[in-house]
Here is the input.
Amino acid sequence: AVAPRGADVVLEMVGHNQETINEALDLVKSGGTVVAFGVPDDLVYHFHFAKFFRKNVVLMASVYPDPGVDFPAAVELLERGQFDTEGIITHTFPLSEIQKAFIMATEYQDNVIKVALEL
Here is the structure.
């Protein structure tokens, strides 16, 4: 949930469109942080620089996670129920169906957003 003043941290993890980074700016509080790790398709994006500047937002890009640092923290948030994946992970497959999962994700079948594999 987003407080009336905005979220402390907003994660832009959709990529592939230009709207979500600006939506993240709308959702973050003044002085908050936007972490962008959605993959961009275009070299240049229409970015609401004035809003970014006036809200004094920290914009952080994250391309390569450090699995030893980032994944344990992310798993801990999930285990404590502090991060809701509803609406983000739309499809789950067993590892034995990895090829089916890969095809679904790369061809954007069945309104897929993110695919998770069960180990």
